[in-house]
Amino acid sequence: MNLSKPIYIALAGSLLLGLLVTIILVLIKNLSATGLSGSIILLVSLTTVVLSLLIFTFLVRRYLSEKIKVIYGIITNEQVSEMPEVNFTNDTLAKLTEDSTEYAAVQQKQISELKKQAAFRKEFLGNLAHELKTPVFSIQGYVLTLLEGGLEDERVNRDFLERALSGVDRISNLLEDLDDIAKLETDRFKLNLVKFNFVQLVKDVFQELETKANHRNIKLKFDKHYEPTFILADANRITQVLVNLVSNSISYGIDGGETSVSINVYDKKKILVEVSDNGVGMAKEHIPRLFERFYRVDKSRERNIGGSGLGLAIVKHVLEVHKQTLTVRSTEGIGSTFSFTLDLA
Ligand SMILES: Nc1ncnc2c1ncn2[C@@H]1O[C@H](COP(=O)(O)OP(=O)(O)OP(=O)(O)O)[C@@H](O)[C@H]1O
Ligand SMILES: [Mg+2]
User: pLDDT (tens digit, 9 = 90+) per residue, 162-180?
Assistant: First the structure.
């Protein structure tokens, strides 16, 4: 018998009780030779079955309703005493199974989200401590050497102070980058949208990074001649995007290589900007994590270059608040192309 429905449990119980009563009555009849007739035994047994069926059904339903109410209290996080009575029907158990499965799925999702956040916090703090440790230790070293006599030594005092200062600069850049990301992440962050000539901005950024590019003999160029192209965006933030991308293309470029910027109008409303280099590139597996804070493809290689892995996180955030897209294509040993969209003014 299928005992999954409460009515079946009550029925099983009352049939058993009926059987028990019948056996007892038959025994009494046989042992004490009382005048119990077969029809009376049958009548009493049947009455027992019917009455106990009614009582059992009532009790089982009440018991289940109470229990289900407690379960719903847990699921909905409400006080059990304040919840309405559960009206038990044949569908109640099926609905409870469905609701609790749904509840379990939501809880599971929340737990994995919290776990992810906890792991992220741990990693973030670890990365931050690591990034701060190097410059702080070097500043500490130079200051101690100066205090222990270096200060009076004309040959090293200025040099050590300058080195300590470069450590301070590094920390200050790092904090500025983190502050930028934190600002961009707040909902209240306001973009200062203005109309400006993007072609001119690229030229300005090329000029700003010319010395850095010359150090590695890298050519910065447009892929062709462009007429002025006016866009509507936060000029300072977009400058930051371009500086980060072009600066990366130089840092991870090859000596004597080149960086090229192209602009294409599409849909008459937008431009697609591409910053391409023929540098070291990267393997596919790095691309999904590239825009995470502190993520660097080759930790040892970048140590010499001095980046902390925040540049692309800022680029991603800036374009996100502009509601624009950003994609990257890259092949190890061949080069990389970072593309993003902007709104035409
Ligand atoms: N054009 C590129 N070619 C090859 N690898 C790149 C390029 N741009 C970025 N990367 C890889 O992506 C990583 C993350 O770049 P990101 O700009 O976020 O950090 P960074 O340059 O190391 O430091 P920061 O920009 O904060 O000074 C880099 O460390 C580098 O490994
Ligand atoms: Mg960078």
Answer: 999 999 999 999 999 999 9
Q: What is the pTM of this model?
A: 0.74
Please, where in the chain does CATH 1.10.287.130 lie? 104-185
Task: State in Å: Cα 292 to ligand 1 middle.
Answer: 11
Strands 219-222 and 258-266: parallel
CA 254/CA 157 separation, integer angstroms: 36
253 lines ligand 1 (CB under 6 A): no
CATH classification code of 193-343? 3.30.565.10
Among the bound ligands, name the one nearest to the CA of residue 305: 1
* Cα(314) to centroid(ligand 2), Å: 10
Q: Is the CB of 263 under 6 A from ligand 1?
A: no
Identify whether the C-beta of residue 321 lies closer than 8 Å to the C-beta of residue 151: no
167 CA distance to ligand 1 middle (Å) = 20
Architecture per CATH, 104-185: Orthogonal Bundle (1.10)
DSSP state of 230: E
